[in-house]
């Protein structure tokens, strides 16, 4: 077999097997378990209510000793010889072998709760049942590739429905207090958008649960942004503007052994011009053999492994840590572009990776493509080195072709795929266990400000409008969008049927051969139709296609919205192009058509934006690979599943890594920060990126507290939204560490508050439980600080978490039967531990704040919360004044403790819009701040 086939086949099989059964292959490796550690774990577990039988057959999935001298051993519960899903544990010992922490989420009395280990469905039938449950075609030609005991797992071929071979394992899952016998089946969808690990009942075949291991936005970035903006009633608070054009010419430098990139810590080429960076920037402690295979730093034969594709082109963007390459034309991993030497930039024997970049020429321009891949290669390597310096090393499962220390497993360099062809307007990461390459997919983004929809006809609406392309069907470059614009009439939906909810259209003859004009949504009220599926963009386009339309334009159903773009893949046989325009523009054109105007349209795409230049997003995606390998051990990437909602997932940590890597000397915590502004064609300093609120220590601009989580209207339950709240408290903590210890621009140093906090975050991930909730992760940070810093920062950590409602008395809420935190039952609290010293948080220069008066949200509408960290020997008086100094609401007397914790809420719904002053009188003085009331 060729190296190409062998390597590809190995990767697919290894990923599939490891994701279904964490630790299955790795459990046979020798583990450095401290003597007596397992016995101590068992003793403590029994004291917590488990029986000896519950812990006697535990499987050690991983164990390693980190740079702090701590040995982390991770366990999995087994009953009747079968793994219990999400029933995990850990025992952590110090350098002296003393157990310093044990955690467990085992099922008590498991043997009595477990169904008999005799399935009614065969493994083949389980694959079929899973395909039906996931809405996929049934497998064809299914055959066994790897036969084994069902407890260990067996592997089938892809059956024509998966991008990878399909592993199947028999195990137990906790459901309603019982252990149900399930088949665990992993299927990687052919479009590479999902890697499902589904559990079907081994007796009936019904779907019990499913987890997507591909970590990505639940929607495209722009959908997420628009939903967020709408929730905050600020849909018009920003304007998309064309990105500043980077310098179109090469830098004129042809330096050997160099890369031209946007260097750390700058976020994108609109913020900072590209620079020539020598390959010697690789840190010799963490990449002693360099970043690139031909640098000559590695021993002879280092890259000569028969499975290696790194040496297939010596002068490419490939090395021990990262292989970066173009994957535009390849949407299935069964034939990865990594096998092709032409898919990566060629630096020639001089190793000169200096390529000109001109945005106006489009992302697929050869030089632009090479420049983007080079940037992705540089940033992925920098992330490797920086995070290794702070604890994500070989022993804990980092990404490397060969591990130099002999600790951990190698053969898992990062596969960084630039301009991946499997989607648009997004990015994702497939976490893998140690020993299997992780995969980062960076996509192209619509350059919306440069997209031009030209409308001719009625003079009142004639002109040029912005639009967003879609991620399915033919592109406009392959099939142009042009013709007469016809408003559809489906005969059943509201607004005279213009939602396109049913077929045939009443005006099918008018639509035929023309561009169908359809309003978003509007279909849930139709009897017998699936609201979620029927409102999706693709089915609407398919119905227009069935009515003979040559193309489709969908406009938003809210007349005040900005542009969004839609994801999804062509699963319905769409053969016509489609685009999306804003509600404001759509309703304007619709009114003209209804008034009798004849409109003709044509669409022209602007040059795509290459996601490989958005260094914040690259850092975010890389971060998923870090948090998943550190939480629960490098053998078990399932401890932070990608789209299992109602928990932190990896999103909070990934946003934190993104912000941390792009922080500069001189920055301050109160300055709003955003994620993915470059990808979203937005200003770095204006945003809003793709999060609901900016990241800032200013609580008037980022109002999140723990109570933001929940299922009520306006509360967060989606994984990315929940993670945003988690990142907010980490970002607050980062700045308090900087104010305490200073900022160090040397990201490899152990000094500086930024570096100290990053290390603490990584150490906390190693100690936290699988599927952690916010308070689990808070406690892991506190424990990490105790073990490595002697609890030097405990008071500060408590103060930061208490400020955001995650204090000592807070309640984490319910967990599902499988041990996954939910957002129901959460109770926030603003107190600190009884053993912690109450402190006042610092401001920019480390000066203790004497006037920390906060009023939020600002602008406010019906309600305004006033809160302060000020002390007072007497209750505080809170008054809202107009600019003449007159009280517009009755003064309130509020206990100091309440003002410092929950604050006081003013009802402002009766006030006229305008500027007001909040006045707070304490025993130590009077303080004011200005607020705006709007309608």
TrEMBL record:
Gene Ontology biological-process annotations: proteolysis
Record-annotated membrane-spanning stretches: none
GO CC terms, sorted: extracellular space
Chief place of localization: secreted
Residue ranges occupied by any PA domain in the UniProt entry: 483-588
Gene Ontology molecular function, alphabetical: metalloendopeptidase activity; zinc ion binding
Range of residues in the leader sequence: 1-27
Domain FTP stretches: 60-101
Domain of life from the UniProt record: Bacteria
Any matching Pfam family: PA
Database matches in InterPro entries: FTP_domain, Fungal_virulence_M36, PA_dom_sf, PA_domain, Peptidase_M36, Peptidase_M4/M1_CTD_sf, Secre_tail
Secretion system C-terminal sorting domain boundaries: 856-933
Keyword annotations of the record: Hydrolase, Metal-binding, Metalloprotease, Protease, Secreted, Signal, Zinc, Zymogen
Cofactor(s) essential for the protein: Zn(2+)
Subcellular compartments: Secreted
Family: Belongs to the peptidase M36 family.
Protein name as it appears in the record: T9SS type A sorting domain-containing protein
